[in-house]
Specification:
The protein is mainly α. The chain contains six helices and no strands. Helix 4 runs antiparallel to helix 6.
Length: 146
């Protein structure tokens, strides 16, 4: 497997970056939809439209992009130097991003069932969390501080 990844490294890396960009686009947009949804009256036309948008965004973009990012990122791990501390920190942050993804999925199910109890302000704050984690990941990968 290591020889395969080494031979196709740049293609795998490109696919990983494309997947991460798609995943992050969705992870940044979905909480913004939740901000609007939290202010919409349950059962209203706006609420029902947002339910469809949220479901499609999660199922058609965010979930497949996360799967691809993990797949291609996992392949890249075969040729990494595991003694580098930045790599361990990045993996922890990627797992945190996966947990955030799980929280967004749960919140979407709550909205779909008209069970949301959180105010729009909660989702405004939640919208910033993936951005901060993404910034930390990019700094770790580019700067490799340790």
């Amino acid at each position: 497997m290591k020889a395969f990844v080494a031979e196709w490294y740049y293609w795998i890396k490109a696919l990983h970056l494309i997947s991460v960009m798609a995943w992050m686009a969705g992870m940044l947009y979905l909480p913004r939809l939740f901000v609007y949804h939290a202010s919409a009256k349950p059962g209203s036309e706006l609420s029902e439209t947002l339910k469809v948008m949220e479901r499609r965004l999660l199922r058609a973009i965010i979930n497949p992009a996360m799967f691809a990012a993990f797949l291609f990122g996992g392949l890249l791990l075969f040729v990494q130097d595991w003694s580098q501390g930045w790599l361990h920190a990045k993996i922890v942050l990627v797992l945190l991003m996966g947990a955030i993804h799980g929280a967004l999925s749960r919140w979407r199910r709550d909205f779909a069932a008209d069970r949301n109890t959180r105010p729009a302000r909660f989702y405004r704050i939640a919208n910033e969390v993936p951005t901060l984690v993404l910034i930390a990941i990019v700094i770790l990968v580019v700067v490799k501080p340790f």
